[in-house]
Amino acid sequence: MAQLPIREYDAKRLRSVFSNLPYVWVLVDAEQQLQDIVSVLKDSNPDWLRVVKPDQLFWKRGKYGLVGVKLDATWVRDRLTTHRQEQRTLNGVTDLLDTFLIEPFMPHEGEYYISLSTEREYDLIRFSVSWWIDIEENWASVREVRVGVLEQLGEEHLVALLGMDRHAEFIKHQGGLAKTGEVEKFIYEFFQFFRQYGFVSLEVNPFVLSADGRIVCLDMVAKVDSCEAWRQKEREKYICRV
Known about the structure:
Layout: E1 3-6, H1 8-19, E2 26-28, H2 31-44, E3 50-54, E4 68-71, H3 73-83, E5 87-90, E6 93-96, E7 100-104, E8 108-118, E9 122-128, E10 143-148, H4 155-162, E11 170-173, E12 176-179, H5 180-196, E13 199-210, E14 215-217, E15 220-225, H6 226-231
Antiparallel strand pairs: 1-15, 2-7, 3-4, 3-7, 5-6, 8-9, 8-13, 9-10, 11-12, 13-14, 13-15
Helix pairs in contact: 2-3
């Protein structure tokens, strides 16, 4: 069965619908949008700093210098002008950069890693409190559990993922402390989202604790099952091949 990669902004919009959460974004994929981007961003909120990244070549965008952070509207345009139509190769995949995602910069304290994938007889969940760009270097910190295809995510799975922190009020991360209950609630909700929307893989690296206490997904990489995409016609407007 085919696996269909979808754009990051599509995956995040799907989650905003599922969780009834706001999602603010601008997608630039045409020359006219590039010319108008400064006025568009200033009209939406002139004081916001932004994050800019290609909505393609997902793996290692940060390590390869393709993610710009804390940019004002003019710097956003300059970065887009510099990288648009640039040919880049990441992990053996070469592509022409033509689609960029712009989001508000999110001040935060802690960074977490989570990924979900489908196997023949179970869904695999991986979780870590290590820094996002260095997850491979800190792979020993990753905990994983298997949830059978006929099972639901339960207490025993959360205990395995959070370890001793499962019974504490706070869970440690490299930026300090976050409420264990909030992280646990996110993992549970994210797993339900994963299953309901027919994903075969879904990675967030990282999700973070914002300054006002919300959990926010910063970088998301997703693939959906082609059969599920066909069945759920009402969501076709979100799904696009990368």
